[in-house]
Inverse folding.
């Protein structure tokens, strides 16, 4: 057999946790066919890795790239870090299933979404969960709606159909509408469907601050009642009064594992998160959907009630003006011309610029942007990051949203930052452990088909990097900076990135569960 590609002079880290070893990789038709000592004459093309680390392409275990791959199909921000696969559809929000899809931001089902995006082409592989919030809204409507028996059947049907079409599992966003209106009693039947299909339940828990540990208990109760494989999303403890609680969270996770349940987590290596700033509002303002929220923001009576809620303590609600502080809530993306120049400013700075107090300045901004303002919340701490990121069952993610304006630097730096700042690359075993965390572990947790390992029969998704040069360059002030140290990336056997440039190959594919039966 003549191979398409031979990668020579490799220091191989295969993603399994095994120690690195010397060898060559032969690729044919986009798959690894042989690993060993292979003659250059056996291949049409030879790539000299020059003794650098060669490993499976990295997996971003939690991303929000469903529509950004349509706007930026070369995925330079991710592939420059060595990422060859993004797992999307997290936090209860997927672009399917929708009753009235628009084929840009929403789709009737996963099959339609896959066909649409693959028709466009993209550089980095994708795999998707279905969002609980998405199936809930389709079944029950927007806002705070009780679950009827008919609605429960619709949700179960849409979940089952999504799994049948290749969804990796279901995510929930219990801190967001409409997930915040769900109950454990609603989640358990859905989790049982996931368990029966060997799929994963990934949850943005109901609270990551004052009642974090109660939220963990709720999550693990669903796990214990259903037997589902569970992933706790972006593990952190928000707000200074809660710093240090991640260690307790991890003890609860370990106890469930000791009892025989499959529980994991993911974490991004930054002390700040990024989400829509409507999360700062009291929950009741979101109960009847966006239009009603905007009506409340525009009415004097609504404003007065919101102001009253901001005066209440954290024993009443998750008051982020206290837990996080206006000075630590930053604007990362706005779209209206009248708000140009605000990106990167805190809500405290916004109030000073607009000559108002923080509450009025914030509510005015939300109202002017139709409720859609992306923000960065600096609320976590280094101690908790280290606790989470060093746990053997916690995967690395970016949790990134690609927005214009000033995005979170994790979009450009998450995996490079992990390798440079938090992973130990000083011994062969440490290198093996670090690579397993961003390759073999997420592939195992999500039961991914033929990715995550350097192994014959697996996809030739391969990253080549220099452990002495790997580092992130993206900062909060200048987030759109490519990482250093990644020399080359192959996706499906095609050279997709080299010398800090995309090669526009767009050989990305949808990665499905290993048990998926192709239609």
């Amino acid at each position: 057999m003549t191979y398409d590609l031979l990668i020579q002079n490799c220091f191989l880290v295969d993603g399994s946790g095994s120690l690195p070893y010397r060898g060559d990789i032969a690729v044919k038709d986009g798959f690894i066919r042989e690993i060993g000592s292979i003659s250059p004459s056996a291949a049409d093309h030879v790539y000299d890795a020059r003794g650098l680390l060669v490993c499976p392409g990295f997996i971003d275990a939690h991303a929000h790239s469903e529509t950004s791959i349509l706007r930026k199909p070369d995925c330079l921000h991710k592939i420059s870090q060595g990422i060859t696969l993004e797992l999307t559809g997290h936090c209860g929000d997927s672009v399917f299933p929708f009753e009235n899809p628009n084929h840009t931001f929403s789709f009737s089902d996963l099959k339609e979404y896959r066909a649409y995006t693959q028709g466009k082409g993209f550089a980095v592989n994708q795999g998707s969960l279905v969002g609980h919030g998405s199936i809930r809204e389709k079944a029950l409507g927007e806002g705070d709606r009780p679950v009827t028996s008919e609605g429960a059947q619709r949700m179960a049907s849409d979940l089952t159909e999504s799994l049948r079409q290749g969804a990796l599992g279901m995510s929930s966003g219990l801190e967001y509408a409409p997930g915040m209106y769900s109950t454990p009693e609603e989640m358990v039947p859905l989790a049982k469907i996931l368990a029966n299909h060997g799929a994963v339940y990934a949850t943005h828990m109901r609270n990551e601050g004052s009642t974090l540990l109660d939220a963990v208990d709720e999550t693990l109760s669903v796990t214990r009642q259903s037997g589902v494989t569970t992933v706790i999303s972006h593990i952190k403890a928000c707000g200074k009064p809660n710093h240090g609680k991640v260690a307790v969270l991890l003890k609860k996770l370990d106890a469930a594992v000791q009892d025989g349940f499959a529980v994991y987590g993911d974490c991004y290596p930054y002390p700040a998160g990024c989400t829509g700033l409507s999360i700062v509002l009291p929950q009741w303002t979101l109960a009847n959907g966006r239009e009603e929220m905007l009506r409340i923001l525009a009415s004097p009576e609504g404003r007065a009630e919101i102001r009253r809620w901001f005066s209440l303590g954290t024993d009443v609600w998750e008051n982020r003006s206290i837990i996080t502080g206006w000075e630590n809530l930053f604007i990362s993306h706005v779209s209206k011309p009248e708000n140009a120049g605000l990106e990167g400013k805190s809500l405290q700075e916004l109030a000073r610029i607009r000559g108002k107090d923080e509450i009025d300045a914030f509510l005015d901004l939300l109202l002017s942007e139709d409720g859609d303002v992306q923000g960065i919340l600096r609320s976590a701490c280094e101690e908790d990051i280290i606790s989470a990121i060093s746990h053997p069952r916690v995967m690395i993610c970016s949790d990134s949203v690609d927005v214009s304006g000033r995005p979170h630097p994790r979009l450009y730096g998450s995996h490079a930052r992990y390798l440079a700042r938090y992973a130990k690359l000083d011994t062969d075993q440490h290198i093996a452990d670090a690579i397993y965390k961003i390759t073999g572990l997420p592939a195992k947790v999500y039961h991914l088909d033929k990715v995550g390992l350097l192994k014959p029969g697996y996809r030739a998704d391969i990253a080549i990097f220099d452990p002495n040069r790997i580092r992130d360059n993206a900062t909060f002030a200048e987030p759109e900076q490519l990482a250093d140290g990644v020399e080359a990336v192959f996706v499906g056997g095609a050279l997709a990135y080299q010398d800090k440039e995309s090669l526009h190959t767009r050989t990305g594919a949808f990665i499905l569960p290993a048990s998926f039966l192709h239609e």
Summary: The domain at 56-271+380-502 is CATH 3.20.20.140 (TIM Barrel). The chain has two domains: 56-271+380-502, 288-299+309-374.
